[in-house]
Specification:
alpha+beta; Jelly Rolls; 3 domains; 7 helices; single chain
Length: 403
């Protein structure tokens, strides 16, 4: 099979032999609908490789890309991927988003450095560090709490007929102990993820769960009944071990997701008006009240209100951007965005003045300081922020959002 032009350009991009004209050509190709899957794969590769010290574009290359982006979007005033929508459609321009982010970051970086230059003897500007992986509290059946980020690797204890083991990578695993005496009844544990944390859990049946910040999962230490039931508040990605004799069910906000073995994401924060179940692999049934739907890979069940439910086609991988280490905003207002950021950076947002209904879209690593993320928004010229770091214990952290 002949190698396509887009594959050649991507290879040249990665080995840093691509020219400025080829930069612009690559942007154009990746922004076309027929290359959307390639564009998203390319975006993930870039984000996975990116570090704070990595630069993928020269200054000249960034400018060439910038000119191509502005022509493509029809907006010569745009300054960053975090920009106003719908001047260009998010779904059809994943690559433009990727390249726009990197070119924009390159071009904004000198401005950030200049703005953050501190004269000798002056205090450093306030900032908030990103959250951390493997930060969680495990609550045992007797209400004993174990701070998992402080616990060492090895067996943490016994619960019912299961051993709780913390692996070297920080993951918690429940190991079924056949030789242990079965408990008189079902024993439940709770894994609670605070703001600024996330955690990975392997249940006793081998199913894996990734929990996002400000989330909680209640689950039995072993599944002894006819079904495997867990209760979720917040957001989690599930990879369920197949067992056709024992369906797996996730309960949240009076709704239920039922599966046999599959990969899916549930976004069900209590303070969100809309919840969503997104399927990546297999099939799941989503039920709430008298309504139920069966969704397929690439579909999302959206739940709003008492029993409202609809199904829409989505790019399923977008739903697990948080799991893969980055924020993905698609046509969102600033209040929605700040709510997501507050869970990760652990602050309280406050709003001053007339905050408009501007819509923003973009992609950025979760593992940058809050100031870097906020500066991307500020560069649009529509909004500004003030970080209040709080006291020595970390309490009272706020970010003021101003017109």
């Amino acid at each position: 099979m002949p190698v396509s032009r887009i594959d050649i350009l991507i290879a040249r991009f990665h080995d840093k032999t691509i020219t400025d004209d080829e930069h612009a050509e690559l942007l154009g190709l990746l922004s076309q609908k027929e290359h959307s899957r390639t564009a998203r794969k390319f975006l993930k590769e870039i984000l996975d490789r990116q570090t704070g010290d990595t630069q993928y574009f020269s200054a000249d290359g960034s400018q060439a890309l910038w000119d191509a982006i502005q022509t493509k979007t029809g907006n010569r005033q745009r300054q960053t991927i975090i920009g106003r929508l719908p001047a260009w459609k998010w779904a059809g321009a994943a690559a433009a988003a990727c390249l726009l982010f990197m070119a924009g970051y390159r071009m904004l970086k000198p401005a950030r450095q200049e703005a953050h230059t501190v004269a000798q003897g002056q205090a450093q500007p306030a900032d908030l560090p990103p959250g951390k992986k493997n930060k969680a509290v495990l609550i045992l059946a007797d209400n004993t709490e174990i701070a998992l980020d402080a616990a060492g690797a090895g067996v943490l204890g016994l619960q019912g007929n299961a051993r709780i083991r913390k692996g070297r990578n920080g993951e918690i695993v429940y190991e079924q102990g056949d030789a242990l005496k079965p408990p008189a009844g079902t024993v439940y544990n709770i894994l609670r993820i605070p703001n600024g944390g996330e955690y990975t859990l392997t249940l006793s049946d081998g199913s894996k769960v990734w929990l996002n910040a400000a989330s909680q999962l209640r689950y039995p230490v072993s599944f002894t009944g006819k079904t495997r039931d867990v209760e979720l508040s917040g957001e989690a990605y599930f990879e369920i071990a197949e067992n056709r004799e024992k369906p797996f069910r996730v309960h949240f906000n009076k709704a239920t997701v039922e599966v046999l073995g599959t990969h899916f994401n549930v976004n069900a924060y209590d303070d969100d008006k809309v919840h969503a179940v997104t399927l990546l692999e297999g099939s799941v049934k989503v039920a709430k009240g008298d309504h139920s739907v069966l969704i397929k890979p690439g579909q999302q069940a959206v739940l709003a209100g008492a029993e409202q439910m609809k199904v829409k086609q989505v790019v399923a991988e977008d739903a697990i951007a948080w799991k893969n280490g980055y924020f993905l905003f698609a046509d969102e207002d600033i209040r929605s965005i700040m709510k997501k950021l507050s869970r990760w950076y652990d602050f309280t947002p406050e709003y001053r003045g007339n905050i408009g209904d501007e819509r923003f879209g973009g992609v950025i690593s979760k593992f940058r300081n809050a100031s870097e993320v906020l500066n991307m928004f500020e560069s649009t010229g529509t909004i500004r922020f003030q970080i209040i770091p709080g006291d020595a214990s970390g309490k009272g952290k706020k970010i003021m959002v101003m017109e």
